[in-house]
Amino acid sequence: MPQDDTLRAREFARMFRLISAAKERAEALQLRNLVHLTNMALLQVALDWEGLDPDRDPDIDLGGLVREKERIAMQNGRENLLVLPHT
C-alpha cells in the first residue's frame, strides 16, 4: 500500500509540473484566459491529490494548499521538465 501511495504522489506531482509549465508558457504569450484555466486546473490537482472537497470543508486554505503542492512537485522534478516552444 505505501508503494501505491508513493506512485500516486509522484503522478500527481508530475501532473502539477506539466500544468505549471503550460501556465508559464501561457503567461509568456499573455494568454490570460489560458492562465486562468491553468490556475483552476492546478487547484483541482491539489484538491484531488489530498482528496479534499471544498464543499464539505469550506475552511480549506486553497492558496496555501496550492503553494504546498507546488513546493513538493517542484522540489524533485523541475529539472526533468522541458517545454519546447511551438515553431
Biggest sheet details: none
Number of helices: 3
Beta-strand content? under 5%
Radius of gyration: 14 Å
Total count of strands: 0
- Mean pLDDT level: 88
Task: Measure the end-to-end span.
Answer: 44 Å
Molecular shape: globular
Layout: helices, strands, pairs:
Blueprint lengths: L1 H27 L3 H19 L11 H14 L12
What does this 3D model show about the protein?
The chain is mainly α. The protein contains 3 helices and no strands.
Compact summary:
The chain is an all-alpha fold. The chain has helices at 2-28, 32-50, 62-75.
Kindly list the characteristics that best describe this protein:
87 residues; mainly alpha; 3 helices; 69% helix; globular
